[in-house]
Amino acid sequence: MRSTHYLACALAAFVAGVGLASAQTNAPVTASTDIVRADGERVGELTLTEGPAGVLIRISVSGLTPGWHAMHFHAVAECSDAGFQASGSHVNSAEHAAPHGLLNPDGPDFGDLPNIYAGPDGTAYAEAISNLVTLADAEHRAQLLDADGSALVIHASADDHISQPIGGAGDRVACAAIQPAS
Hints:
Helices cover 0% and strands 35% of the residues.
């Protein structure tokens, strides 16, 4: 069990669109991007903010089937192909080759996140923090804004947080490309 791992999830109804910003001294690094379906239709928004304990994740998404859905950080900022397979596997690094799962005694990998819940109308609002990733190049965390960016992928089913390779999360149904500034 990793004593340094901290990941908490709290539901919140918040939508922000602040772009990529760190121009002011001490201003947090923030990234905001659309969440899309496989057909390219915008179904929500993702906002990420670097904090002292990790990256704060805020999600507002619609069009999901009611119930629990897994979400993970994937290695490449690519959400244009059917099934979002070009986003690759979870973000990780050579020095952090842990198996999948927040509840796995040998995990988690850097891409693991808590599930989100979509209500009867298919809408989900969530806020979570991950100390496994960074926007600002923090040591010992996966860099989301590296040369090829990363993606937040929402899956069709819940993640059981232990089984391999993806906790039974199922198909990739929504995706947000997290890209470095041009």
